[in-house]
Design goal:
CATH topology of the largest domain: Rossmann fold
Structural class: alpha/beta
Strand content: 5-15%
Number of helices: 14
CATH class of the largest domain: Alpha Beta
Strand order of the largest sheet: 3-2-1-4-5-6-7
Helix content: 40-55%
Distance between the termini: 14 Å
Shape: globular
Number of strands: 13
CATH architecture of the largest domain: 3-Layer(aba) Sandwich
CATH superfamily of the largest domain: Glycogen Phosphorylase B
């Protein structure tokens, strides 16, 4: 069977969540499947060595302009030309019109939900808002024709089923994401020093992967950190990656603590291979999102031996299990209290780290790829029947 996989953004230098999921899927399929033939469709960009071709995996660099045009026109045309018998679109959207049997990974439907749209109103970047409009137009149409719909947690599976009225639809399946093997405690002093110098890391810090998406709860996290410093008088810093300085200053004005800028380190973009050394040096990893469909970063932190604070909302309790300190993300004071407790209560800290190791070990990219491969096989068999 010839299977096409959409990996439009895999060659871009700054890869994020869905890009890494697609990349790990393909890498692990290369290890476990030597029977089927694969065509990986990517958009040309600078990081073109991140994937290697093998005997049954061929990479097609496909031009086609802006994202929607690439997906709606260039991708189905190329997949048809290559003779693909299945087309797997990995990042929430897919071509509306294609005669090739379609599998779509629908990571989440956050952009469809009225509660999230209220949070988004007046915030978020133009790029994020435009992307959400595109998804709201495309998703309802492709769900009608997709042969299989993969999502990443049971929480998100139930949300999709309820929202689109497809409860009991056997096309919908939940397949967990994984944790990459390089996420483990870093003890090499030269590596720790290299990363510290590269990103200007302070001696004592909390780590937060916030961005401009309102669901990440950056404002609430900053308020909690501000209160933490006022209550404890400590010398801790907050390390944030890839965040815009002007946006940060705006949020600090809103929470009434402009001086907090002196306690925040903005690293810029951090490569995936450098993340373990940052996790390994932080005191606590903060992941108090308002809404997530899975939450890979908290598992990465657990695998690196770091206590995690996360939310009691959406998928996060499902994925965190008993490996994290669970709080209400809408109450910054609970985040503050959790930070203080994790610094003062050594037994609790030790227990969470131990539980975190065990929880992270339950998730692997190989298992994810095996489950996706089974979806390919079932869909291919149904096409022939």
């Amino acid at each position: 069977m010839k299977i096409g996989i959409e990996g439009q953004r895999l060659f871009r230098k700054k890869k994020h969540g869905m890009d890494m999921v697609a990349l790990e899927l393909i890498r692990n399929l290369q290890e476990i499947d030597h029977e089927n033939e694969y065509v990986i469709f990517v958009k040309p960009d600078t990081d073109d060595t991140v994937l290697k071709q093998t005997d049954n995996f061929r990479i097609v660099q496909l031009k086609g302009g802006f994202y929607p045009f690439w997906e709606q026109f260039a991708l189905p045309r190329a997949a048809r030309k290559e003779g693909c018998e299945l087309l797997h679109c990995t990042s929430n959207t897919a071509p509306v019109n294609t005669k090739i049997p379609l599998i779509v990974t629908l990571h989440d439907i956050i952009y469809m939900e009225s509660s999230y749209l209220k949070i988004l109103r007046g915030s978020g970047t133009l790029y994020q808002k435009t992307g959400n409009i595109y998804r709201r137009l495309v998703i309802p149409r492709i769900l009608k024709t997709s042969r299989k719909i993969i999502t990443v947690s049971n929480f998100e599976k139930n949300r999709i089923a309820h929202f689109f009225g497809i409860a009991g639809d056997n096309r919908l399946t939940a397949i967990y994401n994984g944790v990459s093997e390089h996420f483990k405690p870093v003890t090499d002093l030269s590596e720790l020093d290299r990363v510290s110098v590269k990103y200007k890391l302070p001696e004592h810090f909390f780590f937060f992967l916030g961005n401009t998406d309102p669901k990440k709860n950056t404002k609430g996290t900053l308020k909690a950190f501000s209160d933490f410093l006022k209550l404890t008088g400590s010398n801790y810093h907050l390390v944030m990656l890839d965040y815009d300085l002007a946006e940060l200053e705006k949020l600090l004005t809103e929470i009434g603590d402009k001086s907090l800028i002196n306690r925040i380190i903005l690293t810029g973009y951090v490569t995936n291979t450098d993340l373990p050394a940052i996790y390994s040096q932080c005191e606590v990893f903060l992941y108090p999102s308002l809404r997530e469909s899975f939450g890979i970063p908290m598992l990465e932190a657990m695998a690196c031996g770091v206590p995690v604070i996360t939310s009691n909302t959406s998928s996060m309790p499902e994925i965190a299990g008993n490996g994290a300190f669970i709080i209400d993300p809408f109450k910054p004071d609970e985040i503050t209290e959790a930070l203080i407790k994790l610094l003062e209560d050594t037994d609790l800290r030790t227990k969470l780290i131990s539980n975190g190791y065990e929880q992270a070990a339950r998730f692997s990219w190989k298992a994810m790829a095996q489950n996706v491969l089974q979806v390919y096989r079932e869909t291919g068999m149904n096409n022939k029947s």
